[in-house]
C-alpha cells in the first residue's frame, strides 16, 4: 500500500510539473523587427544602420545566432544567458575585424533588445495571468505571436553561421558551432518551435507532454502582441542609435520572480490531482483499494 501511495504521488506531481520544453520573439519576428528598424527614416542613416544595410546577410545570421543557446535553456541556463548578454555584444565588437563582423554583432544586439522586452515584461505578465510557469507558457506565448510574422526568409537566417563561428567562440570562450549548425537545420526546416522548443515526441512520455502542450495552447491568446512588437521596435531603433538599455536580455530575475508567484497555485493543483486519484482509486477499486476494509462493522 505504501508503495502505491508513493507511486500515485510521484505520477501526479510529475504530470503537473514536468514539461521538457522551452522561449520572446522567434526567427520571424526578429527578422521583421531588424528589417523594419534599419529602414525606418528616423534611424536608417546612422552609421550602425549603414553597416547593417551593406552586410544584410551577415545581419541575418547575427540576429538569430544568440538562440544557439536555447538547447541549454533548462540544463545550463548560465550558458544560455551568456549569449543573451550585452557583454557578449561588446566582445564581438571588440574582436570584429571588418564591417561584416560588426553587422553580425549589431544584429546580435538587435536580438537581445527585442528579447529584453519580452523576457522582462510580457512573458512574466503572462505567467502571472495564466498561473502557468515559464517553461510551459513561454514557448506557447511566443509561438502564438510568431505566427503573425511568418517570412520564408527566416528559414535561411543561419545558413552563413560558419563565417562567424570562430568570432563567437573567441567572444564567448566556448565553441558554439555545433549548436549553431543544429539551429540552422531546425530553422531551415521551419521547425523552430516544433524541434527546439517542444517535448521529445520520440518517447511515449514526450508524446503525452506534447498532447497537453498543444491543449494548453488553445487557451493562450496573442492579445499583447501589438504592444510587444511596438516596444521591441523602439528598442531596436535605440540600438541603431548606439544605445543600450539596462534590462537583462535573458530576463532571468523577472521570470524567476513571476514563477515564484505561481508556485502556490501549482502546489494546489497537484494536491487536487492527488486527492482525485485517491478518490477514484477508492471509489472504483482501480489500483487495489478494497472498500470492504474501510467499512464500519
Overview of this protein structure:
The chain has 297 residues and is mainly α. The protein has one domain. Helix content is 66%, strand content 0%. Helix 2 crosses helix 13. The protein is elongated and about 70 Å long. About 8% of the residues have low confidence.
Distance between the termini: 22 Å
Which regions contain 5 or more consecutive residues with pLDDT less than 50? 11-24, 191-200
Largest sheet: none
Strand fraction: under 5%
Alpha-carbon Rg, integer = 23 Å
Give the helices and strands as they follow along the chain.
HHHHHHHHHHHHHH
User: What is the number of E strands?
Assistant: 0
Q: Please state the overall shape, judged from the principal axes of the Cα atoms.
A: elongated
Count of all domains: 1
Mean pLDDT over the full residue set = 78
Enumerate how many helices there are, as a single number: 14
**Fraction of helical residues:** 55-70%
Give the class from helix and strand content and strand pairing.
Answer: mainly alpha
Question: What would you say about this model in short?
Answer:
This protein is mostly helical and 297 residues long. It has 14 helices and no strands.
Key attributes of the depicted protein:
single chain, 297 residues, mainly alpha, 66% helix
Topology:
Elements: H1 2-17, H2 27-38, H3 47-53, H4 56-65, H5 77-83, H6 86-95, H7 99-130, H8 134-146, H9 165-172, H10 177-188, H11 192-196, H12 204-217, H13 225-240, H14 252-284
Helix pairs in contact: 1-14, 2-13, 3-7, 4-7, 6-7, 6-9, 7-8, 7-13, 7-14, 8-12
